[in-house]
Specification:
The protein is elongated, with a radius of gyration of 36 Å. α4 packs across α6, α6 packs antiparallel against α11 and α9 crosses α11. It is mostly helical. It has a domain of 169 residues. Helices cover 58% and strands 0% of the residues. The structure holds heme C. The site of heme C has 25 residues, from α6, α8 and α9.
Amino acid sequence: MTFSRTNVVLAVALLITAGLAAGINVDLTRPNYEFLPEMKRSPAYDAFSQNPNFANHRTLQTPVPGTIARGTLPLHFAPTKEDALRAGEQLSNPYADDFALLQIQADVSIAEPTPDAPPAESGLGAENPEHDRGQSEQEARRKAAQKRISDSLSRGREIYRVFCISCHGPTGAGDGPVAKRGFPPPPPLTTGRSAQMKDGQLFHILTYGQGSMPPMAAQLTRDRRWDVINFVRAMQKNAADTTAPATAETPTAEPADSPGSRAGQEEAK
Ligand code: HEC
């Protein structure tokens, strides 16, 4: 009895549902009813749209004075001779610590044997592991510094080949193809003034140019400028180490490779 009445109620409910489903024609091409539309559509302004919230009616505001764009660092120098000298005093080569470490290490290794010898003889074995660990840490730091420097030099060699060789020539003598065709020849990089200049001054020349030497800041990031400075230093060191007849021979050798590979090997030792 109750069973059949329940069935009737369910059947009626089913009919009503089916009728409604067939009767209400949902247009699926149009959006449904939106509850709290602000959650779906953000009131944010487009970058270049008008904006009533600012006095100048712009959405995109100019940065406040002193803003530094991400990835850039300002240089506070003017393209003048005085500021080139100031840059020499104030800018330091980011590889200076690595060069200094290798220099200090060289001195330490000379001084080391004397204090080392007595404990080894007197058989104080307990102290040796400590000492060895210190040694190997120093050795690891030295290796890391050496790798950073030789990586920088090989980048610098490539940069020199692409951006400098055309004027300065393969050995830095100022005899590149551009200089040979009438461009004022640059002074020699290995024996000229630049050998006495500080790294920061070279950085200033590469950044702002000097006389008819073009500024290189647009072509070379700061890091790449330091790489080519390290490479020029290696060329200078190389030239200073080599005797005069040897330098005279070099230009006749393979033009692009000779300064690079020689300087690179020199540093890699
Ligand atoms: C378009 C030719 C040209 C190119 C390319 C060029 N230089 Fe120069 N460079 C010159 C000239 C010319 C001078 C001399 C400028 C002067 O003082 O009148 C010079 C000067 C220099 C000096 C100063 C030398 C001194 O004794 O005063 C350095 C250092 C230097 N260049 C390095 C470089 C490096 C590194 C590159 C590559 C990244 C490069 N140059 C690319 C033409 C060039």
